[in-house]
Structure to design on (613 residues):
């Protein structure tokens, strides 16, 4: 029966009912996602918008307070501190991580011997994540007998800082820790590099382009969509930075590592200020939206998609 | 120009000399030197990456005095294997292990089932609104779940699900955007002839999904399963919020609680417990490395 072949576009008498049957099946198949999307995403976003205008501790009914939560946040030095801390970490960790992971990927892309061994080693930390990583690094950064400070002292005669107990060194400490897991990004960039057609390099070489020129004019532009994607994910990851800070410093010393999500968590689940924390969650949601729009709008200037018409 | 002469052989084997600069300019020499430097840099980096893991292993076998010894002791005088049973019985780690396994495997079933169903719908079935709905799926890709954590917590509190595994398991049955996307992309690479033949044989969509699509998609399902396993096994934020009493704790909570109750004095036991906790992930990683590499590349490049 010809009508059993879905690609046939010609309208036959039974085409309509068949299409309807297919459409019904489609909605049945994606029903789990629609339900989850409404109950776990859309519903909560609307609900938290409402809660953000209330005083709510779960035990008692929410009480409407207008914009008081937002006013409280904007005049709260600790809220601003949590933003400063998060941004401070982001401006250090993101560029350093970007350069390190692209750099490593470029090196591995030189067809070095033992590629799969290097790949395995560099990716290993991504598998050990969460609390285990925090505990391990807590020991490494232990100021008096941790291996880092002992190494600094015995090798360079430098007395290492107090790391997690020192408000100026706690963020650099987290940045150093973040370098341990550049392997995930490296693998992504390596995949991107391997997707760049070799003819481009051959053409560039014929035109007399040196290694640097090829990097700037061929490799990085071709890699830019991947960089963009990782940059967005990286910024969001910084704003959800939690486990390491919670386990190692609880936001201290003196709020020096009070990351945004940490402050949201304490407000909601320690002080039961659900309204205030909802306001924080909503500001975060707006930030993600604005960020996405900005990046998408400006990406045309620096992201090159192959096959794009100019 | 440098004038240091270097003896070298040309193609006919005749000795001749060229200047250093010309020698340097020769592609093969420069290439080999560059690759040697690159290998060295990569190797140093790899040692730096392995260093903390080796340190963790070493510490887990030390006596308490040795953990704080200066200069650093890398190989304990006598390996303290007793640290492992000691650490694991200091807290009910067997129970935490069991709890973590229950949460991880049940949510794994939900993750695979829901993502495969929804992914199949988007890959194969045509319906009005499909394009728009798929854009919606993609748009939730970058929305961090922490944004909606408070209303979800309130909902689960009202349902009396706090201190049960339900908040960690049930949402997995409703499809995560990234997994849906990954499986949809994979399903689209399967030739349609297979489905069409099955339709001619009178198979329904559910049968096609179960008998044709799933068996052909084992590599993609493997990628989803592995990433979910690692995520769920190590997850800390959700268990922290939903599991308060320690008979339902997962390993992450147990480890965090271990430091809280013992402080920094028992690093050897702490590292022993930590190693045991992460062991399933490390074993999985070495067994299924190929899937990891594929999964990462797909997620980054196609995303």
């Amino acid at each position: 029966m010809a009508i059993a072949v879905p690609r046939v576009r010609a309208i036959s008498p039974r085409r309509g009912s068949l299409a309807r049957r297919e459409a019904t099946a489609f909605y049945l198949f994606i029903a789990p996602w629609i339900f989850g999307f409404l109950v776990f995403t859309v519903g909560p976003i609307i609900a938290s918008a409402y809660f953000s205008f209330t005083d709510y501790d779960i035990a008692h009914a929410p009480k409407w307070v207008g914009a008081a939560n937002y006013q409280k946040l904007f005049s709260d030095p600790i809220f601003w501190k949590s933003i400063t801390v998060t941004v401070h970490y982001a401006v250090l960790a993101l560029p350093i991580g970007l350069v390190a992971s692209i750099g490593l990927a470029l090196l591995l892309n030189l067809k070095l011997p033992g590629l799969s061994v290097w790949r395995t080693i560099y990716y290993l930390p991504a598998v050990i994540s969460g609390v285990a990583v925090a505990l391990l690094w807590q020991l490494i950064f232990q100021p008096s007998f941790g291996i880092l400070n002992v190494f600094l002292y015995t090798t360079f005669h430098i007395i290492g800082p107090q790391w997690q107990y020192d408000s100026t060194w706690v963020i650099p400490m987290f940045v150093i820790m973040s370098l341990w897991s550049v392997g995930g990004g490296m693998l992504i960039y390596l995949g991107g590099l391997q997707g760049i057609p070799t003819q481009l390099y051959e053409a560039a070489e014929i035109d007399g382009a040196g290694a640097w020129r090829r990097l700037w004019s061929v490799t990085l532009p071709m890699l830019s969509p991947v960089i963009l994607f990782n940059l967005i994910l990286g910024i969001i990851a910084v704003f959800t930075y939690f486990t390491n800070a919670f386990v190692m410093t609880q936001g201290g010393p003196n709020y020096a590592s009070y990351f945004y999500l940490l402050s949201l968590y304490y407000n909601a689940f320690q002080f039961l200020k659900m309204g205030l924390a909802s306001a924080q969650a909503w500001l975060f949601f707006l930030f993600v939206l604005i960020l996405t729009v900005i990046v998408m709008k400006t990406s045309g200037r620096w992201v090159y998609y192959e096959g794009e018409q100019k | 120009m440098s004038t240091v002469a270097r003896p070298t052989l040309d193609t006919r084997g005749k000795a001749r000399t060229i200047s250093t600069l010309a020698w340097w300019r020769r592609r093969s020499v420069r290439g080999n030197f560059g690759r040697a430097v690159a290998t060295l840099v990569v190797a140093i980096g790899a040692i730096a990456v392995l260093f903390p893991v080796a340190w963790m292993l070493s510490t887990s076998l030390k006596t308490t005095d040795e953990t704080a010894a200066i200069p650093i002791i890398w190989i304990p005088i006598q390996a303290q294997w007793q640290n492992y049973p000691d650490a694991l019985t200091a807290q009910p780690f067997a129970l935490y292990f069991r709890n973590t396994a229950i949460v991880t495997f049940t949510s794994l079933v939900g993750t695979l089932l829901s993502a495969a169903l929804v992914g199949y719908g988007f890959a194969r079935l045509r319906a009005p609104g499909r394009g728009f709905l798929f854009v919606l799926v993609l748009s939730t890709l970058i929305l961090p779940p922490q944004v909606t954590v408070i209303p979800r917590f309130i909902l689960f509190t009202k349902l009396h699900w706090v201190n049960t595994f339900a908040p960690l398991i049930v949402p997995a049955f409703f499809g995560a955007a990234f997994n849906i996307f990954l499986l949809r992309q994979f399903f689209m690479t399967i030739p349609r002839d297979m489905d069409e033949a099955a339709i001619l044989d009178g198979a329904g969509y559910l049968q096609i999904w179960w008998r044709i699509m799933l068996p052909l998609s084992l590599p993609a399902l493997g990628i989803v399963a592995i990433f979910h396993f690692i995520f769920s096994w190590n997850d800390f934020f959700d268990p922290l919020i939903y599991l308060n009493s320690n008979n339902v704790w997962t390993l992450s909570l147990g480890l965090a609680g271990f430091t809280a109750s013992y402080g920094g004095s028992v690093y050897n036991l702490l590292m022993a417990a930590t190693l045991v906790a992460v062991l399933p992930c490390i074993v999985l990683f070495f067994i299924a490395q190929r899937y990891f590499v594929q999964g990462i590349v797909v997620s980054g490049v196609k995303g």
Remarks:
- Chain A touches chain B through 101 residues (CB under 8 Å).
- Residues 1-5 of chain A have pLDDT under 50 and may be disordered.
- Residues 77-108 of chain A form the longest helix (32 residues).
